[in-house]
Amino acid sequence: MASTVISQGITIEGELTADEDVLIQGTLKGKLVTKDAVSVESGAVVEADIAASSLSVGGQIRGNVTAKDRVDLMPGGRLIGDVKASRLTIADGASFKGNVDMDV
Amino acid sequence: MADVTVVGSGIFLRGSIQGEGDLEIRGRVEGEITVAGEVTIADGALVKADVTGRRITVRGAVAGNLTGEEAVRLEGGARVVGDVRAAAIGIADGALLRGNVQTEKPAAAQRTTVRAAGARLERPAPRVEARKAAAGNGASRRGQAAEERPAPPPPVVPALKKGTRAALRKRAR
Fold it and tell me: Testing the interface with A: which of B17, B26, B28 to mutate, by most A Cβ within 10 A?
């Protein structure tokens, strides 16, 4: 259980700064910065730039994504924006539009 | 607890939270909170926002107005600076409140507020009469002083400048 949950039906607008993992099932607009993992679940809508240690995308994200560790695009996940991460996986059935920067 | 939104203790949020469902805040929030469900502001939380919900339970610190459609409960350890308005208000022993209290449904609200500066109140004391009684017998000295003293009268500002009335009278003659 993530320590911070944005559940379905809830909309958060603004700047969210955290040093713990964040689970998003609802709507987030603005900016999200955390030192831990972020999970955007199926049904979630994120219109925000995200910086995290790792990110898993099952829902919809529109915004640039920076992950220190990894970004995982799950089946059904939808990401429009640039990705900067050391590892990126895109599962079959995920949609993605944007640039990838993996410090080659 | 699928539909409970939790803002954890390591969170700092600047912005607004709104929507359906319940909300629990353990971290810091600055902005505005408007949800349809229950709001719990946990011990250690720091909220600088107006909070609106069906039921609001406070154990942490809030700077802002609390509006509960059904109820607002200030538990022991709660620190609230702001106005509290709900159909039912409970203030537990050990809760601190500075602001106006209004125990009416927010929709049918009238301006019959009571000043409760620095009051430490025994629960149940949401009603005005009960509050006055509590202040009368055995509230803390500071609280009593604050309760006994009526709200300061509005500052007296002369409607006319000094001497204007005399001048007018002279002119009328």
Answer: B17
* CA closest to B12 among chain A residues: A17
Asked whether the beta carbons of B109 and B102 are under 8 A apart, the reply is yes
- The answer to whether the Cβ–Cβ distance between A9 and B20 falls below 8 Å is yes
Question: What's the number of domains chain B is made of?
Answer: 1
pLDDT at B60: 95
Which tens digits make up the pLDDT trace of B37-64? 999 999 999 999 999 999 999 999 999 9
The label of the residue with tokens 């803002």 reads: B7
Strands B11-19 and A10-18: antiparallel
Residue B165 region by backbone torsions, left for phi larger than 0, else alpha for psi between -120 and 50, else beta: alpha
Q: Token pair for residue B159? A: 């409607």
Domain around B29: 4-172
Residue B12 contacts residue A10 (beta carbons within 8 Å): no
Please give the model's pTM, rounded to 2 decimal places. Answer: 0.69
- Tell me how far apart the alpha carbons of residues A39 and A62 are, in angstroms, rounded to a whole number: 14
- Number of other residues whose CB lies within 10 A of the CB of residue B87: 18
Out of A13, A17, A22, the one facing B16 most closely (by C-beta) is: A13
